[in-house]
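Hello Y.,

Per our agreement to keep a running log of every chain we model this quarter, I'm adding this entry. I've kept the format consistent with earlier entries: sequence first, then predicted structure.
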Amino acid sequence: MRRFCLLLALIFAAEAARAAEPPRVVVTLKPVQALAAAVMAGVGRPELLVRGNAAPSSFSLRPAEVRLMNTATIVVFVSESLETFVVRALENLPQDARVVELMAADGLKLLPQRLGPNWVEDDAPKASPRPLGTDPGEELDTDPHIWLDTDNARAIAQAIADELSDADPGRAQTYARNLQALGQRLEQLDQEIAKTMSGVKASPFLVLHDSFQYFEKRYGLTAAGAITRRPDLRPSPRRVSQAKARITEAGAACVFAEPQYPDTHAKMVSDGTPAKLGRIDALGATLPETAEAYPALLKSVAEGFRACLGTK
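Predicted structure for the entry above:
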């Protein structure tokens, strides 16, 4: 009887220890990981999959990263159209794993992908087949760069907090307090960036690919077009010529490269035109993996636009 009681005590102790452990959260992209880190402040640290200058469009999971996903309590990603590398891994997750696809979160302001000759390279290779599990005409027609709007950041953080509270009800109040503090920080951040952008709203520009639409719409910037829809590929001579003509037509002041792709793609377009070559990063490649990475990212994007568009 004594041995039986001891066994029960050990079982209960093990269960209590497991309950005391914070949820293991794995996030694909750094801006979202930063928002998750803010919600989890004082509880735990979410793990990041895509690091450094890696681009979601060309990223592949290594065995260690697959194992990390398989041990996660919660896996958070934006959409299967953006992070195609997660599709197979999601199908093979343990049954008790929780999956949060942020494009389905409540309260998001979603924008359609921009079409027309200024945004789509008409002679580019055909797009890859639709990722498994996506709904044609829905996810692939929506711009997935949702984190570049502070209102969307609130919705993203809310979705993460809701999932954490459901998985870890004992810490629900902590997640709620952190969410409230984050909301106040995002409001302040929005005001700071609006002030930074106030002097360059009327200056047209081209981007490498259409990844900053949410930021542009939020702060009233004047985007004139994109070089390509496939930034991982060298733009065709025809497209370079079309983009150069667009610079002249729109009076574009800058052409923006991105650190995930060769600067030469944007430089081919800006060379020989009045437009300057700038650089902005939608993912925060060089930022530390902390809660402060999100405000730092948006400030960096704002400063990248201001530094190029605000100079003659």
